[in-house]
Design a protein that fits this description.
Largest sheet: 7 strands, mixed
Structural class: alpha/beta
Oligomer: single chain
């Protein structure tokens, strides 16, 4: 692996102190030689999220945090928080994930990096009992319908438990940092019933034939 494969892992959190205590260490203890950083964007939590992050930073210097001021709790705040995280990222690839989506092993980043090549702009990953399943996309537009379905308003793309892959409820997205802002445009869109039905059928057809 080369220096080109250094990675930034980005999460937006709000009142997730317990989840950070339980799951963030799994992100911070990856065995990944090229190096990586973890960026947490706190949406002005009201619990002890800040204290948890301070304690973890003492042992993990590659953990960084920033915040989104004043919790207006607008539905678009997660998209804005991730945008802030992308702007802070120092590496060529970023992984957008959720604090609930705990990596399956200490070699999670290595597994993702092994799929990076000059023809790939984005990857979508799903955790299962066998490990991590990854879909590759040469162009982020190829993943557009899947992302819109999972990240539409009032939806959560990271908590599905059954048939996640078939339904497109992924656990993380890895994308070239140069393409991340374009990808975030697919997040939190308004989707009517007819369009949502079409997106569901497209995702199920694609994932059942791959």
């Amino acid at each position: 692996m080369s220096e080109m494969n250094r990675i930034s892992v980005i999460m937006a959190v709000y009142d997730n102190a317990r989840e950070l205590e339980e799951n963030l260490p799994a992100f911070l203890t990856q065995t990944y030689e090229p190096g990586y950083e973890v960026i947490i964007v706190d949406e002005s939590s009201t619990d002890n999220t800040e204290d948890v992050l301070k304690l973890l930073k003492n042992d993990h210097p590659h953990l960084y945090s920033t915040f989104l001021p004043k919790p207006d709790r607008d539905i678009l705040r997660r998209k804005l928080a991730l945008t802030i995280g992308v702007k802070a990222a120092k590496n060529e690839w970023v992984i957008l994930t959720d604090v609930h989506a705990r990596p399956t092993s200490e070699e999670w980043l290595k597994e993702i990096a092994e799929n990076i090549d000059n023809t790939t702009e984005a990857m979508i990953g799903y955790y299962n009992k066998k490990g991590t399943k990854i879909q590759l996309f040469e162009d982020i537009m190829e993943a557009r319908h899947l992302i819109i379905k999972a990240e539409r308003k009032r939806a959560d793309g990271h908590k599905g438990k059954h048939l996640k892959y078939l339904r497109g409820k992924y656990d993380f997205i890895a994308v070239k940092t140069s393409k991340a802002h374009d990808l975030l445009k697919f997040f939190e869109q308004k989707v009517g019933f007819r369009r949502l039905f079409g997106l569901r059928m497209a995702v199920m057809f694609q994932n059942s034939h791959s």
